[in-house]
Amino acid sequence: MDNFATPDTVIIDFGSSNIFCFGKLRRGKIIGIRTAPYLQSTSTTTISFEDYYVNNHKVDGSITVTNNGVNSDGNLTFGISKDIEISLTNGNEISWTANRTREWVAGANTPWNIADDIYIIEGTSSGNHSSGGSFGVIISTPIVFNMSCWSDWACARVSGVTQVLPPNGNTRTIDYGDGTCNCNRTNTVNDITYNVTF
Fold first, then answer.
1. How far apart are CA 111 and CA 161, in angstroms?
2. Beta strands in the chain (DSSP E)
């Protein structure tokens, strides 16, 4: 989807039989619809699924990204909503909803060079895991996503704090670091902190 194109639709069709793609078996369609250029205020991009399966698990729902325009700091902001349901082959289901904001704090003047992009992400998510229990996630300190670390997406989250609320047990607090490009994290549970490398 060209950023400067008129409203358009893109369909990724894996076909009706499984094919191996990006390390997983896939079939069905991923459909992307954009109402206006991505950088235009109020434009929306919606991704949905049609008979889409990953490793024979059926994926339904949608992801919508809305351009909310420029904020008081002069940065482009986007609202991101996700409502996903996965039907597992054993009959169980996983559901996940999320509402986040993404602020483009660096690199917006060079939209074709993602390596200089930096985003700040805030928001919450919740859902039910495969055994039926609920969970929640809160970004308690905004996450900084530095695309210059993009060689490993897990390492691109360079700072910020997320709290994970499991259905049974105490809150897990994940600290993404001090802003440097590395995969070092800390996970705190019951006042005990563990060092983790993603």
1. 27
2. 8-13, 19-21, 24-34, 44-54, 57-70, 76-87, 93-106, 118-128, 134-146, 157-165, 172-178, 184-189, 192-197
- CA dist 85 to 20, 26, 53, 58, Å? 22, 16, 12, 8
The pLDDT tens digits of the residues spanning 97-136 come to 999 999 999 999 998 898 899 999 999 999 998 887 899 9
Distance (Å, whole) CA 11 – CA 152: 27
Residues 78 and 69: beta-carbon distance below 8 Å = no
The residue length of the chain stands at 198
CA separation for the pair 174, 114 (Å, rounded): 26
pTM for the predicted model, two decimal places: 0.87
